[in-house]
Amino acid sequence: MPFNIDDILRLLCHLSTEQKMKAAVKHSARGAMTAGAGAFIGGLLGGPPGIAVGGALGGVLGAWMANGQFKPIPQVLMELPPVQQQTLCEQIFAIVRTLDWTDATQLIMLVTGNAVLQQRVAAALISYVTQELKAEIQYGD
Questions:
Q1: pTM score, two decimals?
Q2: Pairwise CA distance, residues 125 & 15, whole Å
Q3: Alpha-carbon span 25 to 75, nearest angstrom
């Protein structure tokens, strides 16, 4: 049975909005490069003491940069490339394939009306975001 990707994406957006889920992809490589660059520049300008000062300042700046900004999960889902959206929706469809729905509204009602099913869909979404997108999830405002 073919499925409508938009229906499943709307379901995921609804569930993640209800749970106030946000995601942040950490930019640890960029932060590490900043820390290293700070130490290098400090060494060029101040010798061995400059390495320590530059490394410390670069480390602080790098840590700040590595701390990703959180975006609402619906925004993250809509910004995914179509191939990743398809992959995610196939995983979710494997969970809801036994349901018979005609549109996204009906799918949302069927899933939210069944606590076990809702939990399975949310767990699959969380797993995808944390494992495939390497993002951290935060709940609430």
A1: 0.70
A2: 9
A3: 13
